[in-house]
Amino acid sequence: MSTHVLRQHGSPASRRARSATSPARPNRAVSRWAIVSASLSPIVGIGGWLVADALQPASYSPMRDTVSQLAGQTGADRWVMTAALFLAGGCYLLTAASLAGVRRRARGLLIIAGVAVIGIATSPEPASGPTARHLAWTVLGAITITVWPVFVARRGPARPRILGVTGSVAVTVVFVTLLAWFFAEAQGGSMLGLAERVTTSVEASWPLVVTVAMRRGARRTRLDPRDQAGSASPGGPWAAPSGEHGAAPAGSESRLDPVTR
């Protein structure tokens, strides 16, 4: 019976060797839906205010006036920007739900950012100026998406460099600088519209960078199973063959398998 079991399943050492050299299973950390939704978010946002800008009267200046005015009660064809905000916020939510390869806190922050964008769409700016509710949604969304890159960072040799601690901190510093420019222009500056468009466009594109980098990293891991084989073996990829560590004592085979003797 022992001989039959060994022939059918092999020894424990042989099973470990086969599992170490077998190809890795596909990585489900980044789904196709994450790529699609992360791509649509900046496209919908940028395309929305470009189309809405073209529909406004000559008195509207994209350099000076905000995107919120496009969806506000005084905006011409404000449904264009309102629909774009709803779609962009929904893309954030779908990306967060499909991006299983990041921490829960990072996914939660992306959900908050998506809800904030939808909140901006549901609280249009009146002719008298932005309301407290509108400003609250705007500030919440701006701060959340600004600090989001640093929550994506994670240490590890298999992590894409741009998503490492150094890369994520550098991106966060850039986002904070852009947000500070936007807040400075909001204090009566003449380039508030430009600052808002540049800041939101850059920050809305970062989830796409994260999803593409993670998917490419997972693909390289699947295509090169030698790293996993090396890490799974007791001595790593440079371990010496078992025969170089010395032969088994005489008679060991007969003691281990008395049935085959």
Give keywords.
261 residues, mainly alpha, 0% strand, globular
Structure description:
The structure is a single chain. The chain has one domain. With 261 residues, the chain is an all-alpha fold. The protein has helices at residues 2-9, 12-21, 32-55, 68-71, 79-98, 104-122, 132-152, 165-185, 192-223, 226-232, 252-256. Helices cover 66% and strands 0% of the residues.
Helix content: 55-70%
Using only C-alpha atoms, the radius of gyration works out to: 28 Å
Structural class: mainly alpha
Approximately what portion of the residues adopt beta-strand conformation? under 5%
H/E topology pattern: HHHHHHHHHHH
Which outline best applies?
globular
